[in-house]
Structures are given as C-alpha cells and as structure tokens.
Amino acid sequence: MQVFFLSLVVSSFLLQQPQDSVENTAPILCISSGTTSYKYPNNQYQTFRTENDFYHQIDKTIYEEYNDATLNIRKKIAFKDVPKAEETFHLKTNFIREKIDLTQHTFIHPNRQVYFLASFKQNNQETYYKYLVIDAETQTILLGNSNYQSDSIN
What we know:
Blueprint: H1 2-15, H2 22-25, H3 51-57, E1 71-78, H4 82-93, E2 113-122, E3 126-135, E4 141-150
Antiparallel strand pairs: 1-2, 2-3, 3-4
C-alpha cells in the first residue's frame, strides 16, 4: 500500500507542469545561432596547441616577442575574452587606451578559440607595445596593434 501511494505521489509530481522552474524564469542568455552564419564558428570543444607550443611554431615574421621584454603574455582564450586580456595587458604596462570594441567582429563566434600574444618592452628612452589575436584553428590574424613611444626630449 505504501509503495502504491508513493508511486502515485511521484507520478503526479512528474506529470505537473513546473510553475517557477529555471526554464520558465531565467533570462535568455544566448539566442540560438541557427540563423547566424559565422565565418569563424564555435570551436570551443576542439583541441589546439598550448599557447607556448603555438608561439614556438609561429612564423617570427608575423609575431615575435621583444628581446629583453618586460612583459610577455601568451594565452589561448575565447574570442569574447579578448577585450579583458587586452585590458589586463594595458593595466600591467600602464598604457592608457580605449577598450577594444568587438561589435564589428560579428563574423567570429564569441566562443571561438584564439591565441592572444602580447609583448612590452621599456628602457630609458623608448617604450614598445604590441599584441596579436590569432585564430587557433586557421591561424589567421584577427586583430592586432602595436605602439611605440619615445620618452626622449629633443
């Protein structure tokens, strides 16, 4: 009798439509990309080289860290995290710059894996900054910037 009653309670509970489930109350965080066609689609579940392995195999005419650099960064991240990586690089190097705007890069899926490479060098007269964002799958350069400042007074 107790087993019958328990199974009746469980089955009635399972058949009820949830009133306040996460599915019914949570805000929509992602819109289906069924209609969006990305030139660089999501590849977050694929495996790629580590950041260090990637750096060591890259053509040094494309990117090379500064000799005697004060700071070098090598990261494999999601494309959506590029602004944060760039901001961290600029904070660590004391370089004031506007945040990067990815709104023009709608052809790249936010979860696309990329390599973020950055290098900073400073001496008594000069300061050098550069960073590059390279697609992990195609090894295509997606973003980049470099800056040189002369601290000498002429």
